[in-house]
Amino acid sequence: MLIRKCIKELSCRFVQTINCVRKNSTGKYCLELVRKHDFENYLCTLLLHKNIRRTGFAVRAFNIEVATIQDQISDMKIGEMRFKFWESSLNEIYQNKIPKHPVLIELYTATKTHKLSIIYLKRLISSRENYMLNSSLKTVEDLETYAENSVSPVYYLFLEAMGIKDMKVDHAVSHLGKCQGIINIIRGIPFNTKSGRISIPQDILSKYKVSYENIIRNSSEQNVRDAIYELASRANSHLMKAKNLEKKENKHIKSIYLPFVPLHIYLEKLRKADFNVFDKKLQERNNLLPMKLLWRKIVS
Prior knowledge:
This protein is an all-alpha fold.
């Protein structure tokens, strides 16, 4: 009975949300962009509070646009030009110039509705551009800094959209962003090796005597799994800190923490795969995720 009720509620909420966001073509564009490139966060964004849902899709769509630049170019100069385009477009938005790109139009609406800080949006750009230009991370601390700058601003913007200014809440979403950023790096290892990019920090590679060749040939040897285990442990530590801080907060902002669910699921799957990041099962979509997300939203 409970499962049936949950499925019915899930269906109703998703249909209502999609219909609401799809009322305009630019909103639909952002929704579909997030669904295509970031399905887990697409589901999480659908379940945000209705007052910030459209803004949520605009921010996530913008983040996808800048995050995928490096994967779309072979010439660094072209990459720099694209980052410059997004930065210049942001400046125009804050000068009340309405852009023509659908993501930027939605972002313009979001900044007018919720007065979002340009500093967080620019941080999403600069973190990705710096990573493109200096793609090797020297230490785990460098990885955490990159994770903080490339993911956490999304959550800071969500908090701004909700009108929440609280250092404790900022601290919680900072840990959430660091966890998600580290897991993004781990999950991207099989894909990045195809283009010769090694995203594991150099100090971890050195500590476990992992060579670039080990990664490029998708090795599942013990030293490689030990290196992944250390990264996963760091991600899990940030997840636990975020969860502990989140328990002290009111229900009004609980929906922001829905990514806890897919992050925990991935870490658990990685553990069951004995930290073999190249295990094909890690790339499979979890069909129960929508229900698990709704359940957390209902009970939290």
